[in-house]
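Reviewers of the previous submission asked for a worked example of the structure-prediction workflow described in the proposal, so we include one complete record here. The input consisted solely of the amino acid sequence. No template or homolog information was supplied to the procedure at any stage.
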Amino acid sequence: MKPYFTIISSLLLLFSPGLNLAGLTQVPSPIDQSQSVNCNPEKEGEDGAYSPQQQEAILRQITVKVIGDNNGGSGTLLARQGNNYLVASNSHTLVGANLNNIRVETIDGQVYPAQIIPNVNFQENNLDLTILKFTSNKTYCLPKIANNEINKQLPIIAAGYSGGDNSFISKEGMVEKITELVFKKGYEIGYTSDIEQGMSGGPIINRDGELVGINAMAPYPVLNHAYVYADGKRPTFSELRELRKLSWGITLKTVLAQIEPELMVAYRLPIPRIKQIVPESKLVGWLQEVEAKAKKITVKIDSSSESNGSGVIIAKDGDVYTVLTANHVVCERQLVAQPCGNFNYKLMTHDGNVYPIDKSTIQFQPGVDLAVVKFNSRENYPVATLANYNPTTDDYVFTTGYPKLKEKSDWRFSLGQVYSKERGLLTTTSQLDLPNSSAGGLNSVTQSAASLAGGYELVYTTITFGGMSGGPVLDSQGRVIGIHGKSEGEHAYDAITGDSGTSDGNKVQIGNSLGIPTSTFLAVASRINVQPQILETTPPPQLTATEVESIRNAILSVDVTKTNTSASQWLERGNQLWRLRRYNDSIQAFEQAIEQKPDFVYLGYYGKGLGHYGNKQYEEAITAFKQVLESRPDFVPARFYLSVIYRELKQLDLALTEVDQAIKLQPNDSRLYNQKFLILMDAKRYAQAEESISKAIEINPIAPFYNNRGVVYSRNKKWELALVDFKRALEGNPQYAHAYANGAFVYYNKGIWNSVISSYTKAIEIDPQYPLYYNNRGVAYYNNEQWQLALNDFSKVVTLEPRYARGYKHLGEVYAQFGDIQKARENLQQAARLFQDQRRNADYRETVSILQGF
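From that input alone, the workflow returned the following structure tokens.
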């Protein structure tokens, strides 16, 4: 029996007509030049803002008339390069116009020929936008562009030219509505200014005189076809009634996001900071069924602090429901040592019903970021099924919850893949509450428990947002395998532009999502007097090829926008694409961040390195990670990945140099010592390998490290010490299949066949899709002369892995024991063909020799 070692390493990757917008029908009269003012007047308002008179003067300076043959409207001066000016307006203002006879009229009454600058984005996205260019040697005022988010109740002033008498009009108002998802034409902000026919394309400014958007649609249009969201959905009748009361505009961020990058650079337009919102995939078939099931068990938890989280219904007793969530959702505080904030909470179920949460029902266990809350309802809500098993790396999973993206939180269902618990612990590179961490983000916990801080042992690739904390992580059957809680991130801030990450501590998401497995909840459930109502312990059945294809197609269909945005948001986009394992797209996004050269440019190179590594483009990845170190030589994750790649390329000296440098920077990082152990094992320097993995265990005694030390003990034939460590690994994680298998190898060498068989049987119960477990148990049955059981196992091997030559060889040998020479020959011949195809010459010759004996 060939020795079987499975060393869990940290190398695995991480992976127009009808609108009430009619334009001008006659050539306008000249504008009184006496209205012109200083482009940057001193603020005269009592509250430090511009006075109403100043605001109107600013609007007059930046508003132009847009004139077509039989149509027109207003426009907004945007930027200047030399003698060329850009004007933003709506495309519907020029419907039917002769594009060779478009003109703009400025504040001084000058009329200039203008041309439309072609824009693929406007056309492809069906946006009601157009950019005009005209040439003049005169100097016209340009607007200050707002860089803050537009919020409800923001006072604004909208301006433009009347379609009736061509007069200039400005109207005060308030932002009353900001849509979660923009309307198809790009309309996003609803405001109370009663804009008139002809004002479309005119500017909207705030009280500081900053441009925040352009007018697009007046209240009460003749038709309602503009009120269609970008995803094709339509508002309800009651919602439509309220929407029709407002004027609608396009934010300047939307305008800037869609302009061609070359034009942005040439005219020195500011890069908009648009918060990344990834549209959901449209699911069909079994995925749609899982989604529907998930929505019914997921709840939204709102706080009086105006934050929100999610949760999942896990039990029902009469009218009392129990919800499992993350503790930080219902215990808001800056530091773990602080008491919970004095906030009140309410809960919303999938049907929109809202229930108060009695704070006395909130229960949690210190040290684990989990909590349970209760609510009362006479409604009949479904209860989630919890599943307690160790997922296999690359299993497909889903996260659900209510992300806080804009004004409200809509339910979301996100697809991705998970790592096994052991691999996940060695894959994550986030900072997780290390008290003495140095620069960089690759850190391990220093606590003695076999988990990351707060119980975060579940690592997965689904795209998650703030507000989804506490929501369930589901397997392919819709069973709860964990609770989502956080995402990996790195600090990002640019001192010149102010660009920064949007999460706590100016962090951007770089890495995976993290959750707490069901097993951790079950371990503390009795202490908080809660038990799940439905619990299962078996892994889900293997997905069919059709099911796998449907998930892959859904993931590929996720639309991560490529519009202009800030460097920090390009990092977020790149990370989302990296999570979706669309590595080429992720590399392009990270390159966009790099082009802006922010202070955190090293994160762009780091993300680019991750993308190349995912593509197995090792030389390109090495180049990217080295560029990280040029800016940040103390950034440990880059050194870690360089060590990983050099090891994969069998350049062990370089791999060892990089990991040693990383250890100098972070001497308390157990995963770095594990990485060093792997390199030393490859170099057959077993004594040093044992020393390194023992150091990892000293810092963080988790199951994978005990397993790995058991492996090096086995290499040195220290059988009893190896068994002790494999047993310790299983104490830390009773579902650690590899530890059972490695223990079986020790029993094999000690000749204890019953223990060999029972250990492999346990490994198979945990992971029934791993062919080598069947192969090795089959060998044990064979050596124990249990021919039929051996035959069953070897048959399973070739079913799971049809190109596993040794499985056919073993089958042939078992059939020979039964005296079935024909089947023996058939299987040995197949083994010989596969050995030859795989250029395993010694195995090929041995198999041919056996065949010749028949």
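Residues 774 and 793 are 5 Å apart (CA to CA). We consider this example representative of the routine output the project will generate in years two and three.
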